[in-house]
Structure formats: C-alpha cells, structure tokens
Write a structure and sequence with these properties.
The chain is built from seven helices and two strands; from the N terminus they run αααβααααβ. The chain is mainly alpha-helical. The protein folds into two domains: about 60 residues, no CATH class; about 80 residues, no CATH class. The protein has a two-stranded parallel sheet. Helix 2 crosses helix 3 and helix 5 crosses helix 6.
Length: about 150
C-alpha cells in the first residue's frame, strides 16, 4: 500500500509519465533516452536507445525498498514446451534435437544479443557479458530474480 501511495504522489507531483498515448515499452525507452523521463523500470535494450540519442549518461540500480527490507527483481520468461501426445521415440528425439540446437552456446548467445533479451543459461550469461559489457549489470541480477510464471505456477 505504501508503494502505491508513493507512486500516486509522484503522479500528482508530475514526477512520472502519465501520458495516455504511451502504449509500449518502446515509447517509454525512447522518452527516457531523449531526456523526457528521468527514471524508468526497463530492460537492457535501453543502452541502444541512449546511444542512438546522443549517448546520455545513465545508470542501472535496484528498485528502492522501504528501510532495510530486501529488494527483489522480477523477471518474465517465455518457454519452449512440447506436450507428450503419444509421440514416438523418433518424434521426441526430433523435438529434443530442436531444443538442443536452440540452446547451443554460441548461436544461442548471438540470438539473445540480437534480440536484446537476457540469457537463460550460465554459458549464455558469460558469452553475452563478454560480447556486451553493458549487459553485465542485468546479468548480475538474474540469479536472484523471481521469474514468472515459473516461480508462481498457479
């Protein structure tokens, strides 16, 4: 409740974006990178927006907490799933081959970097951080993040 009241006070004091025409995170990233929004909760893609808008100086920080309470990061993730509908061993082997090929270290890291996602594997973390040092701050929080829907399957 305290967090909601704080956000409402920021809106009333016009310290946060309440523009109803802002519909996507891309709009907000563009506004942040052009200096129209001072702070945002956002993905690692922001570095590319900032570079494209003259390289504004920004930092990455954890969300603030009240007093000495521990903070938490929340992640949303997609899944690759295959349902067992009586597939043959050969069909299941083919599905396994596709998933294994997707998560093959080098091509997987290249895909993650191209899409500006965060990697889901330890080796992917290492390769992406080496290729893009700006991702290191984001990768550091992955291990302590609570991912949905996995962490709250209900």
């Amino acid at each position: 409740m305290e967090a909601v009241e704080f956000i409402v006070s920021m809106v009333k004091d016009q310290l946060t974006n309440t523009d109803p025409t802002t519909e996507t995170r891309y709009d907000l990233q563009e506004m942040f990178a052009s200096g129209k929004v001072a702070m945002m909760i956002g993905p690692n893609q922001i570095s590319k927006y900032c570079q494209a808008n003259g390289g504004i100086n920004y930092g990455i920080a954890s969300l603030p907490t009240n007093g000495d309470k521990a903070g938490a990061s929340v992640g949303v993730m997609d899944r690759i799933m295959c349902f067992d509908n009586g597939y043959t061993d050969a069909e299941l082997a083919a599905v396994t081959a596709v998933v294994d090929a997707f998560y093959d270290d080098e091509p997987y890291a290249e895909w993650v970097l191209m899409e500006d996602f965060l990697p889901a594997t330890s080796t992917g973390n290492e390769l992406c951080a080496q290729a893009d040092p700006g991702m290191a701050a984001w990768i550091d929080v992955i291990g302590s993040a609570k991912f949905y829907p996995a962490a709250k399957a209900e």
